[in-house]
């Protein structure tokens, strides 16, 4: 298991996954709340378009993409609905899906096209990133507990193998800032579903506290990625919690409900 690196770039606080940061040919970052132009409950680096202005979101996208050497028109974004749908981006076209009006659900994106900037979103859920160092392909995948239960991480690896010949041993991966086990309290229905999906081995990631169940979904995703063949030392896991972490840095659905913004993660192959 590898670590995340925190850095302040002007007024923007960002996070990097060490194994991806140290790999040539790719740029990536995870954003925090800081460094944007949105106001009120969306202050300041918000990427959630419901309630915020398109002009604010565009400027926030411009600022984040610029740190990767990308333009606004390079961004291809997910449309997250807690599915296991993963889109393959096969070509670059300016503004291809940046307009926030795409209709097809897509919780994951993969590409091997240089210059395409994949963008996904997170608050309490995990945003997973993948980089195939041998075949130069990338993935950006939203994995809440439903996506994890649907094995979206493993399905991303399988899709990258099909599309690009990816060997899991060549992948470096990231599990971004997200809700911690203490904060992620569920009822039995989530326990029953995850146990049915993964079996008794999954119990190591669950703590029973009275009639509630606390899941370590970061640990669960780390386990699934390594079970799929990614070496443990090539997977970075953020220790930061979006729910009990600093409110000036993180939005959390558990803590704030719907009156909040979302963060973004971006990854792009260098041109």
Descriptive key words:
six-stranded mixed β-sheet; 15 strands; globular; 7 helices; alpha+beta; CNF1/YfiH-like putative cysteine hydrolases; 271 residues; 27% strand
- What is the number of domains? 1
Mean pLDDT: 94
Structural class: alpha+beta
- Cα radius of gyration in angstroms: 17 Å
Q: Compute the number of strand runs.
A: 15
Please indicate the percent range of residues in DSSP E strands (runs of 2 or more): 25-35%
Full CATH superfamily name: CNF1/YfiH-like putative cysteine hydrolases
Order of strands, widest sheet: 1-2-3-15-7-4
Please estimate the helix content. 10-25%
Q: Report the span from N to C terminus.
A: 29 Å
* Uncertain parts: none
Counting H and I runs of at least 4 residues, what is the number of helices?
7
**CATH architecture call:** 4-Layer Sandwich
CATH topology heading: CNF1/YfiH-like putative cysteine hydrolases
Largest sheet: 6 strands, mixed
Query: Which CATH class?
Result: Alpha Beta
Shape: globular
> Order of helices and strands, N to C?
EEHEHEEEEEEHHEEHEEHEHE
